[in-house]
């Protein structure tokens, strides 16, 4: 056992340099388990082959940006320990900067860490296997001053940091074979997450620091708790956070396919014993019609290279049943805030990219669509509510260590359940910037973002239906008098170190 551990540590030391190298010619095929490059929101890799890993191909803007881990030889296991530390410096202006009796500093500094331990093994019969974990940093809240008359002391830096915790974001095992594909089991990405690790929605041009998927500018900087949710799901916590089984096939003539199944929205260890209580994700009958179960998804993808062009496309369909509610179903129609009637989860996602090697850099155009019976980020649509339709698109330029991009998105959805048949939500956002890979693992990032959210009759400042209107619910007067939009912009500079 001691010899095995020593050998594993030696192999880790030998391969960690490869993980950070600029590999200009090799087909992208990193470790099956967890690779530390690139930074979040890119998920762990899943196989040695291009079709079962990040999906990059030679010629794509990201295809030559990351080196390969050496696969273990039969009868051995390799230990990986990756990490990430990011420091963000933000200046933001939004409708959430100022509240009742208070005003927020538009300049914020933030930092966080992530740790990526994992193992990859190979049996003597050629079976590949392993496990991966992703640890993230959690941040405590700061006590708010309830009224101007009560003074609540702000926590010191020491007091605040002692409340920070570490939590598990991904934890899965896998079995793989080059001729049969790979099966991932546990808290892991589904087909969408493995098909699209930022390629199709142009999401990694800023080294994972911000853009539309939960970064500092999108989350805390622009609209705080009311930021536009990342509805396209790839690398979103709502998609990879529940426990599931995911299968990806090998690639045949550029095509591969995948299928996934999850019995519930959560983890079996989190199931509660109090039937009907909130948080019982394992329930099929209860009091919350917004819970889904028996999630099934299936998709197919194509990738190919034709001289200076690299192309890719995928289509994916997902459905899930809904919890049956005790007693009569109540509709949300015409502003009834007590409804419990929802439609089954049912949506289609499709995306495509095209990369052209100009000789002085690679230019990638990408577009990603999701739509159907869902509301927000993998939420169930209230019966009678508007369907969701969302498009995100971007153009990325990469020339060696320099990456530049512009990205834009539009989201149409029902939004507030209680405004079903009254109004629907309209959101759009744009971001541009880039990163410079100054040294192996070190990125300097700059980014600007603007977002806008609107729904008639909804107050984004309070996060609830608006007040102060003299009109009846559902009338033009109500929608005008009760509406408060969320608009914001942010400028961010960041340093990112991956290892």
As for the number of domains, it is: 1
Anisotropy-based shape: globular
Discrete helix count: 6
What is the makeup of the main sheet? 16 strands, antiparallel, barrel
What's the mean pLDDT score? Answer: 78
Beta-strand portion reads 35-45%
The total beta strand count reads: 22
Amino- and carboxy-terminal Cα gap: 26 Å
Question: Which strand order spans the largest sheet, edge to edge or round the barrel?
Answer: 1-4-5-6-7-8-9-11-12-14-15-16-17-18-19-22
The CATH architecture assignment turns out to be Beta Barrel
CATH class equals Mainly Beta
Can you tag this structure with a few keywords?
two-stranded antiparallel sheet, globular
Can you walk through the features of this model?
The protein is 9% helix and 42% strand. The protein is built from 6 helices and 22 strands. It is mainly beta and 499 residues long. The strands form 4 sheets. Strands 1-4-5-6-7-8-9-11-12-14-15-16-17-18-19-22 form a 16-stranded antiparallel barrel. A two-stranded antiparallel ribbon has the order 2-3. Strands 10-13 form a two-stranded parallel sheet. It is globular.
Helices and strands in order:
Elements (H helix, E strand, L loop, with lengths): L1 H19 L55 E19 L3 E2 L2 E2 L3 E16 L5 E11 L18 H5 L3 E13 L3 E7 L3 H5 L21 H6 L14 H4 L2 E6 L6 E8 L22 E2 L5 E15 L2 E14 L1 E2 L19 E13 L4 E12 L14 E12 L2 E12 L11 E15 L2 E14 L2 E2 L4 E2 L10 H6 L4 E13 L1
Parallel strand pairs: 10-13
Antiparallel strand pairs: 1-4, 1-22, 2-3, 4-5, 5-6, 6-7, 7-8, 8-9, 9-11, 11-12, 12-14, 14-15, 15-16, 16-17, 17-18, 18-19, 19-22, 20-21
């Amino acid at each position: 056992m001691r010899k095995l551990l020593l050998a594993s540590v030696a192999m880790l030391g030998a391969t960690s340099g490869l993980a950070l190298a600029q590999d200009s010619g090799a087909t992208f095929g990193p470790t099956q388990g967890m690779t530390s490059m690139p930074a979040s929101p890119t998920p762990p890799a899943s196989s040695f082959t291009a079709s079962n890993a990040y999906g990059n191909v030679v010629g794509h803007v990201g295809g030559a940006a990351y080196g390969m881990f050496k696969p273990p030889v039969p009868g051995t296991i390799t230990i990986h320990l990756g990490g990430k530390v990011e420091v963000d410096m933000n200046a933001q202006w939004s409708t959430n900067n100022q509240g009742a009796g208070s005003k927020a500093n538009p300049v914020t500094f933030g930092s966080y860490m992530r740790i990526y331990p994992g193992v990859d093994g190979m049996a003597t019969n050629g079976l590949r296997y392993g496990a991966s974990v992703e640890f993230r940093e959690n941040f405590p809240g700061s006590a708010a001053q309830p009224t101007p008359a009560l003074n609540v002391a702000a926590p010191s830096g020491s007091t605040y940091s002692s409340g920070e915790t570490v939590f598990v974001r991904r934890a899965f095992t896998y079995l793989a074979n080059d001729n049969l594909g790979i099966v991932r089991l546990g808290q892991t990405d589904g087909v969408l997450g493995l098909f699209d690790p930022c390629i199709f929605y142009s999401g990694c041009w800023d080294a994972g620091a911000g853009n539309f998927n939960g970064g500092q500018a999108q989350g805390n900087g622009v609209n705080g708790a009311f930021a536009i949710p990342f509805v396209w799901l790839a690398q979103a916590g709502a998609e990879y956070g529940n426990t599931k089984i995911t299968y990806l096939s090998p690639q045949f003539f550029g095509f591969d396919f995948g299928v996934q199944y999850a019995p519930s929205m959560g983890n079996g260890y989190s199931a509660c014993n109090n039937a009907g209580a909130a948080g019982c994700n394992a329930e099929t009958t209860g009091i919350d019609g917004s819970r889904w179960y028996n999630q099934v998804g299936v998709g197919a993808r194509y990738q190919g290279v034709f001289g200076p062009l690299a192309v890719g496309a995928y289509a994916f369909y997902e459905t899930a049943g809904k919890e049956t509610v005790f007693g009569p179903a109540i509709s949300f129609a015409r502003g009834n805030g007590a409804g419990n009637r929802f439609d089954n989860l049912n949506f289609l996602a499709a995306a495509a990219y095209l990369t052209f090697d100009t000789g002085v850099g690679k230019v990638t155009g990408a577009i990603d669509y999701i739509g159907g019976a869902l509301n927000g980020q993998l939420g169930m649509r209230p019966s009678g509510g508007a369907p969701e339709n969302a498009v995100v698109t971007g153009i990325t330029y990469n020339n060696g260590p320099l990456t530049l991009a512009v990205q834009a998105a539009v989201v149409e959805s029902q939004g507030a359940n209680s405004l079903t048949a009254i109004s629907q939500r309209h959101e759009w956002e744009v971001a541009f910037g880039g990163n410079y890979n100054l040294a192996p693992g070190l990125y300097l990032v700059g980014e600007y973002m603007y977002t806008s959210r609107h729904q008639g009759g909804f107050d984004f400042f309070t996060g609830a239906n608006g007040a102060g209107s003299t009109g009846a619910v559902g009338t033009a007067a109500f929608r005008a008098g009760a509406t408060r939009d969320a608009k914001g912009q942010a400028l961010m500079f960041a340093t990112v170190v991956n290892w």
